[in-house]
Structures are given as structure tokens and as C-alpha cells.
Amino acid sequence: MMSAEKEYLSLADFDYDLPEALIAQEPCGVRDRSRLMVFDRRSGRIEHRLFSDIGRYLIPGDLIVLNNTKVFPCRLLGQKKWGGKAEIFLLAERDVNIWNALVRGGLSTGKTVTLRPGVEAEIIADKNDGTRDVRFRGIADIRTLLPEIGRTPLPPYIKREPVSADKERYQTVYAMHEGAVAAPTAGLHFTPGLLENLQAKGIQQTAITLHVGPGTFQPVKNEMITGHRMHPEQYVILEDAASAMNRAGAEGRRVIAVGTTSVRTMESAVADDGQVHPGTGKSELFIYPGFRFRVTRGMITNFHLPKSTLLMLVAAFAGREQVLAAYKTAISEKYRFYSYGDAMLIL
């Protein structure tokens, strides 16, 4: 049985050593042929499978909760007027042609970047959080140009430039609502056929939307992790999704989150009455050991960075010591880590 742990609140408690060779630089050749570690958080038992085997561990009546956000090509490269390159990483649309963004290239307010002949981006404001507001000129709406000039926002630990294949592979097969700057990567392993097979077996499915923001890569800088603050991320839970989760809970069926983003969305929207409430909101929920999960009964997730908020969330769900032991096993078994890596099913 999973034992009670002491209060782990130091950043160093969530560190581990990972060989760089295990950081996946490319996706698995076939989505559901990635490896799957099945981890029983009560006994600590581990099994090694392929992701396509996941149906062996789910039972009729289980409800899997998908995050159907869609990554948009938010990374723009441009030329500075005085020479040199600059990058504008779009975060949130303020108004037509006005965006909040991360800007690299030594640009200050009033400076412009040429994205293509006749189309420019002007830095119009510096924000307290290190971002900038940018105005686009020479086009009615920059959104119409993003499919042509925008690049897939691969994570910084993938040490290559995106290629055309990433447009499809760094996206879940059920992505629907555009707005994320990073993929909900636990969902990358699903294929339409696998989802259909699970449904035929009686595994229910519902979807929520949480637009993953740059906070997913934001390092925790406080040595005591309670001082960390999450970047707010917009979410939407429709009435049918909330009803499905509430029915499953009331009937004692397992609600299994696909990814940490689904976990944070569900746990952000649960009210004092224990019910998940539909609606739109912003999640700033930071989950670390000691958190009481009220909806989540299982989780599908990838292997996360040391000292990251994602690792802390998984440790809160399954126990820090057990999770780090499982990661040690994953390293010895040469699992692939991070966004394009392999998966864990935690039950």
C-alpha cells in the first residue's frame, strides 16, 4: 500500500539525473507504439507495455478526460531593420493584430521586426512579467498569415528546428480548439483507432479545453516550492463534460485524466459541493504533495523534467518516493522522456 510521506516542499526533493540521450528529439514512428509504464500507486508495482495495450488496464465505465486544445503556429522569426534576427513567440491575443508575446533579439519598445515584405511587428509595451505587447502592421489580421509563416512551438529541450511533420505530430488527433502554445503531450499517443477500440470496450470519453501556456516550461525558482506561482491558463468545461465527470464520481467509476493539463482543469473547476462546475475560467492551480484530489482517480502522463511543476503534480498523486523510484526504473529501461517521449499510466 502507498504509505504516507513526509511533507516534501524543497525544490531539491524533486530533482533527478537524466541522461541527455533519453530526451526524445523525435516522435515515435507510430503514435500508439510508444512505450507505456503501468504504475500501481498503491502497491508500487510496475509493468512495461506498449501504449496500444492501455485497454488492458481500463475497465468498462472508466471515464477518460481528454484536453482538446489545439497548438497554433505561434513562433515567428523576423529580421531587425538594423540587421540580425529576432523571434516573436505569441502568447495571447489582446485585440486584432495586438498580441502579448515573448520577444527575443534585444528589442525594446518602439522597435520593429520585418516578418515578410510589407508585414511588420512593432513592440508597443513592456510588461512586468517579462513579456511584450506587439502590434502587427501591413496585414488585416496576423492570424490569417500564421499557417504560412508561423512555426510549430517545439519545447526548448528539443534541439532541432521544427519540420513539416511536426505540424501533425505535435498535435493530438482530437485537437479542436486553437489556443495552446504547447501540446498536452500525454494525448499524443492516442490514435483514432485506439480511441474507437476503447469506446467499443465501454471506456467512456469526454473532453475539456485548457490552452497550455508558457508556464508549462517555467522553471520553479523558489527553493521552497510553496513560493511558486503558476501562469494562468484559460479553460472551458462544457455542461456535458461536467455532467459526465460528476456522474462517474457519483457512481464510483474512475475518472482518468489524460495529462496534467486535464488534471489541473478538473481540479480547478470542482466546487465545495464536490461537483465539477461547467464554465470558462483561468487555472492557476499549483498541485504539489499534500494536495487532495477530488476528481482524478487515474492519470496518463509523460515523463517530466526534474524540479518541474508537472513532476510535482505527479508526485502529489502517486507519492514522491514512488514516482522517483519509477523514474529511476524508466531510466534503467531506457524509456524516452519529455514531450515526444513515452508514457505512464498511473492507477
CATH superfamily of the largest domain: QueA-like
> Which bin fits the share of residues in helices?
10-25%
Per the CATH scheme, the topology name of the largest domain is QueA-like
SS-derived structural category: alpha/beta
The overall number of domains is 2
Summarize the structure.
By secondary structure, the protein is an alpha/beta fold.
Q: Could you characterize the architecture of this molecule?
A:
With 347 residues, the protein is of the alpha/beta class. The chain folds into two domains: 11-71 and 166-346, QueA-like (3-Layer(aba) Sandwich); 75-149, QueA-like (Thrombin, subunit H), CATH 2.40.10. It has helices spanning 146-149, 166-169, 192-200, 239-250, 260-269, 309-318, 320-332; strands at residues 35-39, 46-50, 63-67, 69-71, 75-80, 85-95, 98-104, 112-116, 119-126, 132-137, 177-180, 204-210, 233-237, 255-258, 279-283, 298-302, 343-346. Strands 2-1-17-16-14-3-12-13-15 form a nine-stranded mixed β-sheet, covered by helices on one side. Strands 5-6-7-10-9-8 form a six-stranded antiparallel beta barrel. Helix 6 packs across helix 7 (320-332). The longest helix has 13 residues, at 320-332. The radius of gyration is 21 Å and the shape is globular. The two termini are 13 Å apart.
